[in-house]
Specification:
about 65% helix; five-stranded mixed sheet; about 1200 residues; 51 helices; six-stranded mixed sheet
């Protein structure tokens, strides 16, 4: 660092000076030998310049390069060298900065690496090293960031501890002492906000005052210290109400403003902080002068911020709040209009995943509602409801703003209810309960009744549909109701019990242990309020026993189980009348006895339990009560438990019979039936197992279809068991049913696409027989598709309840029409599952290989148009092998992986895939005479779907690899390949010559907002225009989202040369980045079906990257293009190198248009989309032959025909 200072670097260095220093350092690095000790110092200097430049201009490439440079520096300082700790410390700081640019769970990898490195530096730093406090401080900041991102008291405590240790070991005379005091104070502030412990904020104030006392008045960081001190005082004022704290905070903020003169880049922070303090004083004293000054300060602050600049969100939110407050005081509608405008912008600055989004939405909804009341504008009311609902969905159940948002939304819904009337069925009940809550505001004597009723309705819907949002809201409503029923209230026990029941369900869903503990506590209190003689005592005994049984499953404390049995025995004595309540008690006792049998292996417990189950069934069976399904499944579980111990006889067969009865019970909800079917499949063998798996798949599809939109269906699928398709294949193959395995796999994969595909089923044959039915079905399909592709959040969306009503009405109508179609002669199998005889048509142009690896066995199935399917047993493959290979591949393609490490890992993956999976298949293909150079299609199950099977090979000398032997493509299902292989509709002869090459649409976006510029796009475009005779280019501002969607309708072929992103959490939000925004997968799905579409080349990063949460669903941009109608698609598995775009394009289009310009009369020269796979094979070989990294050429994949 002395070298840096000698070269003229300091905090106030001008841009030209920094650039000169950076240039000199780069030149020094170029000439510096690798082994020279000074090399590390040069790297540090470069990183320091880059980080300084990043702090000035916020260019991510500077920070990314700084991290890369610092990684090199760390590698130059191995363990044991004194210089390693400083190197690690600098890298940690850069990683922490990178994390703070995003602060999302997806970017936690940066925070984790920074934490690990800081821990390493602190642990290996000698005790007498004067820099040890620096590493402890950095570690504390990491733990504070963990708390901010994922929550948790422990993280905050560790942060405070690290900062205290740093302060203890730092030399008290150190010039940075005041900064460390402020850092500890900041952690204590955070902890005070979380826990409300006044001692934390008091200590924070003391520390800040100590820091101010030793901080030089001319120091550049003094303004930050003043602001921290004022923030602590304002926190204490908000808790204790001492006006002197507020006055001192305002004075300190004014001093901070004075230290940041006009033009200072940090002035906006001081202005905003002062304005917020003045707002607080206005709220307390009502002096209009304070709010006017606050507005003036915030307006000045806003002018200094760019649209994407840091701090803009807080300025907008504070300014809107001040304007709304002044409107309340003065009544000037202009203030309210401005508040709406600023709140709208704050929402835009708070996209999905941003923790500020619910606050922005609620603030906007608040002013929209006030405007609608003031002006009588129903449109503003509708928008307010939309925003409140989204805000409510984003708040966790314990968030302090949630009750206020519930109340505000209820007021809005009350007004709309008065205007528009009632809804229907279960949604009607929920809507009426919301209106009842809105009509009984805080203080109303019956408010708790309405809240309790609303929560019970939501609980009922959760039980049927499994939507956790219903349970969240039910818990929130019960909590509010409980607050309105203090000790002594006659209905307190019922609310305690209802809330505890919901908490237990939430524990079952999310495994949140504190909620289970709370449920036990609430049930105990409810039981105390229901003494002997109280008619509700039996319910409390049952409920308390239930949560104790659940806690036994968690902690395995036999005392919990024995207490549960004692409580239920008491309930049985009290419940002498033979009714459903007695059946519940008997079932509860039996469930507890089975758990104790599993613990003690006392056969008498098992025998008593089975008798109790029989007695319970005898009570409910004559009446068909819904509880019967639960009793049957519990009885089956008892037999399954018995099968784990010797001399169990044929109890598993008995269990299977009981589970089948439970599934067939007419009153059981689809969610319950699906969960029971999974258990049935798990214990079944042979023919019974196949029957169970077929039932599983049918119920899984029906369960998913409960949700109206594809995004909500995906969320549900992601929560389900992901190995179902793999298990199905293994079970069927084990039983020798290869064709059945193929049929079942077809049902079990790409469920979402298959469901959506039904809405676009060709109806030409039906239209010839019954045009009315065809038209009606087509219209219903369009409406259902429109509901399915709606976003689950957004300003214009309807409430989930309304969409649920509409969706269910449409679904019932659809099922009715489909039933009528199946009554038509020749349409008996319309939209039924396809038999193997139909599915094998997928192999008309070459073999299709399905590959599966399961815990029980691993196999490949080769499907050919001629003959039976061929089973290739992969006896050397275990599921753990595929998991390991998948993990290695995932690490290899990370951008943070070094090139040498990436290359090594990828070759390892390709060789293992060759030996374990691909070579046995190739041997069989050669044995049955599939000629080299032929096309083959791969269809991997689960994690195999995201591995580069197409590039597998030995990669040894002259030995051929798979790309040298066959041309590989991928398909998610056989049905999708069959659809892709159909001939396209001939274009209207009046508008196009059927032999004329289809014009190619090129979407070229080299640079868009928030994305780095893509190199070589213009070169790629020039190459395409040379190779393709008819090209329509959408470049830069011509490539808006609407332009692209409109042009897709008139072009058969499309080429995307732009940025692409795969959203790992919400894959339907994966997108192409275009000139005016993102063209998401959902947007593509909303586009009309393109019957003439043929070929799409998605030359964008991650365009064919799968979704790790639901690998068998293949949700990515390439799949979306296929759904839109494109039959042949080239995409990428991960981020592509900019340099490869022109090379691949030249080879692909050179091959596909090799006959262009030679005359349309020459047969076979017209470009054919089915040539794409061969063209890509040539292109990737060219890349490989040019010596580019293996990671670059295996990235490209072909999907479809």
């Amino acid at each position: 660092m002395d070298m840096m200072n000698n070269m003229g670097f300091n905090r106030t260095s001008e841009e030209s000076n920094i650039e000169l220093i950076l240039s000199n350092l780069r030149e020094a690095l170029f000439t510096c030998p690798l082994e020279d000790p000074i090399r590390s110092q040069i790297l540090h200097g470069i990183a320091r310049c880059l980080r300084f430049r990043f702090s000035q201009y916020r260019q991510m490439k500077d920070l990314e390069e700084a991290i890369t440079v610092l990684r090199q520096s760390v590698r130059l300082n191995p363990f044991g060298q004194p210089s390693r700790a400083p190197a690690v410390g600098q890298l940690s700081e850069a990683l922490l900065t990178m994390f703070h640019q995003f602060e999302t769970r997806y970017h936690l990898r940066y925070l984790k690496e920074a934490t690990d490195l800081y821990q390493e530096a602190a642990a290996h730093c000698p005790p007498d090293n004067p820099d040890q406090w620096i590493y402890l401080t950095g570690l504390g900041r990491c733990w504070s960031s963990w708390f901010d991102t994922v929550g948790g008291d422990q993280e905050l405590d560790v942060a405070v501890k690290c900062h205290r240790l740093a302060l203890d070991i730092q030399d008290p005379t150190h010039p940075a002492r005041f900064a460390l005091l402020e850092t500890l104070a900041s952690s204590l502030q955070r902890r005070f906000e979380q826990r409300g412990d006044l001692e934390d904020v008091n200590e924070a104030i003391r520390l800040c005052r100590d820091a101010l006392a030793i901080c030089p008045r001319e120091h550049l960081d003094r303004h930050s210290l003043l602001s921290s001190t004022a923030a602590s005082l304002l926190m204490r004022f908000q808790q204790q109400g001492e006006i002197r704290d507020l006055e001192e905070a305002i004075q300190l903020h004014r001093e901070a403003v004075q230290l940041n003169p006009r033009g200072d880049p940090l002035r906006y922070q001081s202005l905003t902080n002062l304005a917020i303090a003045l707002q607080s004083r206005f709220q307390r004293l009502g002096n209009l002068r304070d709010v006017n000054e606050a507005i003036s300060l915030l307006q000045e602050s806003l002018k200094s911020r760019s649209p994407e600049g840091p701090g803009r969100w807080l300025i907008l939110t504070s300014l809107a709040t001040s304007l709304r407050a002044r409107f309340d005081h003065e009544g000037d509608l202009g203030d309210l209009t401005e508040a709406i405008r600023f709140n709208r912008e704050s929402v835009i600055l708070s996209p999905g995943g941003n923790p500020n989004r619910p606050i922005s939405l609620a603030n906007l909804a608040n002013v929209l509602f006030i405007y609608s009341e003031h002006q009588g504008d129903a449109q503003y009311l509708e928008e307010a409801i939309d925003n409140y609902e989204e805000a409510l969905s984003l708040y966790p159940s314990s968030h302090p703003n949630k009750p206020a948002t519930l109340s505000s939304l209820a007021v809005c819904l009350e007004n709309r209810f008065k205007e528009k009337g009632a809804l229907s069925d279960l949604e009607i009940a929920i809507k009426y309960q919301r209106d009842a809550v809105a009509l009984q505001p805080v203080g109303h004597e019956n408010r708790s009744i309405a809240l309790n009723s609303l929560a019970n309705s939501l609980h009922d819907r959760y039980s049927h549909q499994g939507d956790i949002a219903d349970l969240d809201e039910a818990i929130a409503a019960h909590r509010e109701a409980l607050a309105l029923r203090p000790v002594g209230h006659p209905d307190r026990a019922s609310t305690l019990s209802n809330l505890a029941v919901c908490l237990r369900l939430y524990y079952d869903e999310m495994k949140n242990r504190p909620l289970l503990q709370e449920a036990v506590k609430l049930h105990r209190e409810a039981l105390l309020l229901r003494p002997w003689g109280n008619p509700a005592r039996v319910s409390s005994l049952i409920n308390l026993a239930s949560v104790l049984t659940a806690r036994y499953g968690l902690k395995k404390l036999l005392g919990d189980l024995n207490e549960a049995i004692d409580l239920l025995e008491e309930a049985l004595r009290l419940q002498e009348k033979v009714n459903i309540r007695r059946a519940q008690v008997l079932t509860g006792i039996a469930n507890a006895l089975i758990l104790r049998f599993e613990h003690d292996q006392d056969i008498q417990d098992y025998q008593r339990a089975t008798q109790h189950y029989r007695d319970a069934l005898a009570i409910v069976e004559p009446f068909g009560y819904p509880i019967m399904s639960a009793i049957l499944s519990s009885f089956a579980n008892a037999h399954i438990t018995r099968s784990k111990f010797p001399d169990h006889g044929d109890v598993l067969n008995d269990a299977g019979i009981l589970l089948k009865r439970a599934i067939d019970h007419p009153t059981a909800g689809v969610r319950t039936r699906f969960e029971i079917s999974m258990l049935w499949a798990a214990i079944s063998k042979g023919t019974s197992a196949l029957s169970a798996y077929r039932t599983c798949l049918e119920l899984a599809s029906r369960y998913v279809l409960v949700r109206p939109t594809v995004t909500s269906r995906h969320k549900l699928l992601a929560s389900m068991y992901q190995e179902l398709a793999s298990d199905i294949a293994a079970a069927a193959i084990e039983d020798g049913e290869i064709e059945a395995a193929i049929e079942l796999l077809e049902q079990g994969r790409s469920v979402l696409w298959s469901q959506m595909g039904q809405y676009r089923t060709p109806l030409d044959d039906l239209r010839r027989v019954n045009p009315e039915l065809a038209t009606e079905l087509e219209m219903l399909g369009q409406q259902l598709e429109n509901v399915a592709v709606m976003s689950d959040s957004g300003d214009s969306r309807r409430t989930m309840e309304e969409e649920g009503i509409r969706y269910r009405q449409l679904s019932e109508a659809w099922d009715g029409i489909v039933g009528k179609v199946r009554q038509q002669e020749g349409f008996e199998a319309f939209l039924q599952t396809t038999s193997f005889a139909g599915l094998k048509r997928a192999s008309a142009n070459g073999p299709v290989i399905i590959v599966n690896s399961n815990q029980s066995r691993s196999d490949a199935i080769i499907i050919r148009i001629e003959g039976d399917p061929i089973l290739v047993a992969l006896s050397d493959v275990r599921a753990a092998d595929i998991d390991r290979i998948s993990e290695v591949f995932s690490i290899a393609i990370l951008p943070t992986t070094g090139e040498r490490d990436r290359k090594s890992k990828i070759f390892s993956v390709l060789r293992q895939l060759w030996e374990l999976v691909v070579k046995p298949v190739i041997d069989e293909l050669e044995k049955v005479g599939v000629a080299h150079g032929s096309r083959i299609w791969w269809s991997g199950i689960s994690k195999l779907s995201s591995l580069p099977l197409h590039a597998a090979g030995p990669y040894q000398g002259t030995k051929p690899n798979l790309p040298d032997l066959y041309v590989s493509s991928y398909t998610s299902t056989l049905s999708s390949l069959i659809r892709s292989s159909r001939c396209t509709h001939a274009p209207d002869s009046s508008t196009a010559d059927s032999l004329r090459p289809s014009p190619l649409l090129v979407v070229a976006q080299p640079k868009v907002t928030s994305q780095r510029e893509i190199k070589h796009v213009y070169e790629e475009l020039n190459i395409i225009e040379k190779k393709v005779p008819d090209v329509h280019v959408l470049l830069d501002d011509m490539g808006k989202c609407s332009d692209v969607l409109n042009n897709l309708r008139t072009h058969r072929w499309v080429h995307f040369a732009c940025h692409g992103t795969q959203d790992p959490v919400q894959p339907f939000q994966s997108c192409f980045h275009l000139y005016d925004g993102d063209l998401s997968l959902l947007d593509i799905m909303k586009a009309d079906y393109l019957p003439h579409a043929e070929f799409a080349y998605a030359a964008a990063c991650h365009s064919a990257a799968g979704d790790g949460h639901t690998p068998d669903e293949t949700i990515h941009l390439a799949a979306g293009l296929q759904f839109a109608g494109f039959r042949s698609v080239i995409g990428t598995m991960y981020a592509m190198a900019d340099d490869d775009g022109p090379t691949i394009a030249e080879e692909v289009y050179g091959h596909m248009f090799r006959g262009a310009g030679m005359g349309k009369d020459q047969e076979g020269l017209r470009p054919d989309f089915r040539d794409a796979a061969v063209a890509l094979n040539y292109a990737t070989k060219r890349l490989k032959n040019h010596g580019v990294s293996v990671s670059r050429w295996i990235n490209f994949v072909h999907i479809g025909a």
